[in-house]
Amino acid sequence: MARFNVIQFIREQWKTLPVCSGDVSSKAIMLTGTNVGVGLEAAVHFAGMKPQLLLATCRDEEKCKRTREVVLERTVLDNYPEDSTKVASWPLNLNTFDSVREFADRFAAEALAGAQLNILVANAGVYMQSYTKTRDGWELMLQVNYLSTALLSILMLPYLIKSSNVDSPSRLVVVSSLGHYFGSRKLTGTDKWTSILGTINDENFCGSIDRYVLSKLLDVMFIRELVARLPEPTPVVACTVNPGFCRSRLFRDTETKWYTRPFASFLNYSPLSRTSEEGSRTLLHAAIGGEDSAIHGRYLSGCEVLEESSYLFTPEGKAFSGRLWTETVDLLSKVDNRVPGIIKQNLRVD
Ligand SMILES: NC(=O)c1ccc[n+]([C@@H]2O[C@H](COP(=O)([O-])OP(=O)(O)OC[C@H]3O[C@@H](n4cnc5c(N)ncnc54)[C@H](OP(=O)(O)O)[C@@H]3O)[C@@H](O)[C@H]2O)c1
User: How confident is the model at residue 78, as a pLDDT?
Assistant: First the structure.
């Protein structure tokens, strides 16, 4: 259990991160949020390893087309254009549950034709300066960073399990943040809340930074709760990863107002920040590096397993996390009727 440590943070930011590589020629790798930032850089790295399939998702068709071109332009493929068919990009917009469901329908059709899924890196994430609601009625960061990411993870779980084998379990990686250490700041008196998701969805609950870091703490909780219910030995090794403080488009929404613009500039020009390419190395490590048993259920940062937020180990944190799992599964079961069956068939019951 840990808290944010500034010395460790600075050391980690300045450390040279390894570029993990491996034989992924028989693996299908899926990444979300790949048109810019850390996700794009990870997609380029993975494409260079020539997986059986790289499925790089973006918000819409236009971004998918452009991303596929960029990934192929930046990847040295010996066998072009044959190898280029192994890079695909499909739309997936986490703002709406419908898009997640449509994506899962399309994947199910491909899976019937033999498609497999060995690695899912749920990287897409957003920061919004002002409270914004999705058409599903959820605050945008809560839906994109947590609820849709959880729905996608559950809907893809059967494919990850099916593609797994004893020597090489599949991997599910959810991109969290060092911000998760601050995610519990507003979680007081939670035992009195009638609904966790309802309470944090309320506009008056907290400000934008607190919402963002909380969404990243929810990701850590989701993976820990999932792992607690996966069978042993596990067919899917699941973890969260912090890409570190990176220059990217994450804080683009703060650029729209003069008084929040310095915040984005600080993040993007700070000598402490990494490039997105450097940040992407942490995703590669979580997806194909490390020991399965060491990373399963854990939070990774700087290509190492780090202690998660202390809050998770308090009685309140444990109770909150368990209730969050139950509420999330209940909600997502209403959103998609495949969810209850997937949970029942693949996870231990509470
Ligand atoms: N940069 C950092 O310092 C930092 C630190 C810790 C954690 N992270 C996490 O790292 C991940 C990658 O962030 P980044 O820094 O690379 O930021 P970025 O440059 O803004 O990239 C975010 C990616 O997520 C996609 N995305 C956002 N909302 C989406 C939606 N509704 N549906 C589908 N895709 C969506 C974006 O697509 P569009 O361009 O279409 O919006 C983009 O491809 C995020 O989960 C972020 O929270 C970043």
Answer: 65
Q: What is the CATH T-level fold of the domain 21-346, as seen in this structure? A: Rossmann fold (3.40.50)
Token output for 214: 């909380």
Please tell me the predicted confidence (pLDDT) of residue 80.
Answer: 57
Q: What is the pLDDT of residue 220?
A: 98
Q: Which pLDDT value is given to residue 269?
A: 81
Angle at the Cα of 241 from the Cα atoms of 272 and 250, rounded to 5 degrees: 55
d(CA 333, CA 340): 6
* Cβ of 50 below 6 Å from ligand 1: no
Segments in the chain below pLDDT 50: none
Amino acid at residue number 60: D
Tell me, using a 6 A CB cutoff, whether residue 302 lines ligand 1.
no
Pocket perturbation via mutation, ligand 1, pick of 17, 31, 36 by most ligand atoms within 8 A of CB: 36
Name the residue of 35, 94, 126 whose CB sits within 8 Å of the most ligand 1 atoms, as the mutation to test its pocket.
126
pLDDT on residue 115: 80
Distance 32 CA to ligand 1 centre (A): 9
Closest ligand 1 atom to the C-alpha of 95?
31
Q: Determine the pLDDT at residue 350.
A: 73
Give one word for 181, left, alpha or beta, with left for phi > 0 and alpha for psi -120 to 50: alpha
Decide whether any atom of ligand 1 lies within 6 Å of the 338 Cβ. no
**Which residues make Cβ contacts (< 8 Å) with residue 65, sequence separation at least 6?**
89
Per residue in 282-311, pLDDT (tens digit) is 999 999 999 999 999 999 999 999 999 999
130, two tokens: 């002002």
Answer whether 303's CB lies under 8 Å from 289's CB: yes
CB of 245 shorter than 6 A to ligand 1: yes
Q: pTM for the whole thing?
A: 0.97
